[in-house]
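User: Run a structure prediction on this.
Assistant: Running it now.
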Amino acid sequence: MGAALGFPVSMSAGADEPARAAGRVSVITSIGYCGFVGGPPLIGFLGNQTTVGHALLVIAILMALSAVIAGTTRRSPDNRTQSGSDTQARTAVM
């Protein structure tokens, strides 16, 4: 389903704006590593309490929810071009 692409895509999206790239990438990395460390034990715990199928269904529901949320948090094309011109203007001033 392409879930493995989420981490690299989020890293490149976080690094889009050079002024805040380091902070954004560090937050994305921290969230990703928490998921890598905490996700498998959570799936195992849910699988122990119910069934592995139900545990994976919870993961599928969370993935669908994140896909819906990702679509609504995207910037509009007007804001994207405006912030890009602001960044270029700031760079020219420096």
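The chain is about 80% helix and 0% strand.
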